[in-house]
C-alpha cells in the first residue's frame, strides 16, 4: 500500500485533547523501558521531538531526577496541554523545557544533546529527512537515540483491524486519526533508506510490535 500523508500538526483543540486523554500507557511505558534497556539511565540533556502532551518527558523526568529535557512540538494546542500536564508536577516541570516549534523552525546549538528521542512524530512529516538531519545536528557524538513510530500496514483492512483492536473504546476523532496515521506511516524498510540518505547508518531499525518500529543506536 502506498503511503497517504496526513497533516503535519495535530493542532485542533478537540483533536489534541482526544489524543491527550487517550490511553497510551502501554506504548509510552514500552518506550521508556526500551530506552532504559538499551542505554541505561539517561543523564545530561535529552531532546524529545514531537512531545505531544508531555507524557513521555514526564516519565523520564520522574525516572532520572538529574535529567534536563527539551520537549518540542510544533502544535500550540499540544504545547498548551503539555504545560498543563507539567503544572501538576512542580519538580518535573523545573527540569522540562517546552518549545513550540516545527522541525524546520527548531533552533538548537549543534551537538548540544546527550540523548534524542521521538515517539510517533515521523509519520506526520512531509519531509522525513529533515527529522533525521535534526537528530544528527542536535545530538552530540555518543548521544543515545531512540525513535518509535507506527509501521504502515499492508492495506486499509489491516489498518482498520489495528484500530479496532487498540482503540475500540476511544472517541471517533481519535479512531479516525489513528487510522489516518497508520496509512501515513513509514515501513521499517523505508526508514532504513532514510537513515542511509542522511548518513545515520549507525542506527538500527527493527519491528517492535504489530504496529510499531523502532530506530535506535549511538551517534558516531
Automatic annotation (TrEMBL):
It holds the Pfam family Methyltransf_11. CDD domains: AdoMet_MTases. One of its GO terms (molecular function) is S-adenosylmethionine-dependent methyltransferase activity. InterPro entries: Methyltransf_11 (IPR013216), SAM-dependent_MTases_sf (IPR029063). PANTHER family: TRANS-ACONITATE 2-METHYLTRANSFERASE-RELATED. This is Methyltransferase type 11 domain-containing protein. Coiled coil: none annotated. Residues 47-145 form the Methyltransferase type domain.
Amino acid at each position: 500500500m502506498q503511503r497517504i500523508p496526513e497533516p503535519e500538526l495535530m493542532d485542533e483543540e478537540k483533536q489534541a485533547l482526544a489524543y491527550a486523554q487517550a490511553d497510551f500507557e502501554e506504548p509510552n511505558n514500552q518506550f521508556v523501558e526500551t530506552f532504559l534497556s538499551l542505554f541505561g539511565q539517561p543523564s545530561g540533556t535529552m531532546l524529545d521531538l514531537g512531545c505531544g502532551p508531555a507524557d513521555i518527558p514526564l516519565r523520564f523526568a520522574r525516572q532520572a531526577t538529574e535529567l534536563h529535557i527539551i520537549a518540542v512540538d510544533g502544535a500550540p494546542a499540544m504545547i498548551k496541554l503539555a504545560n498543563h500536564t507539567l503544572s501538576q508536577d512542580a519538580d518535573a516541570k523545573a527540569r522540562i523545557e517546552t518549545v513550540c516549534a516545527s522541525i524546520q523552525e527548531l533552533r538548537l546549538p549543534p551537538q548540544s544533546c546527550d540523548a534524542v528521542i521521538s515517539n510517533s512524530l515521523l509519520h506526520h512529516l512531509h519531509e522525513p529527512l529533515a527529522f533525521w538531519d535534526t537528530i544528527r545536528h542536535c545530538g552530540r557524538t555518543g548521544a543515545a537515540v531512540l525513535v518509535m513510530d507506527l509501521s504502515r500496514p499492508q492495506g486499509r483492512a489491516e489498518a482498520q483491524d489495528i484500530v479496532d483492536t487498540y482503540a475500540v473504546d476511544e472517541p471517533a476523532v481519535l479512531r479516525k486519526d489513528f487510522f489516518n496515521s497508520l496509512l501515513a506511516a513509514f515501513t521499517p524498510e523505508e526508514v532504513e533508506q532514510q537513515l542511509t540518505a542522511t548518513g545515520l547508518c549507525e542506527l538500527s531499525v527493527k519491528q517492535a510490535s504489530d504496529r510499531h518500529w523502532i530506530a535506535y543506536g549511538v551517534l558516531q
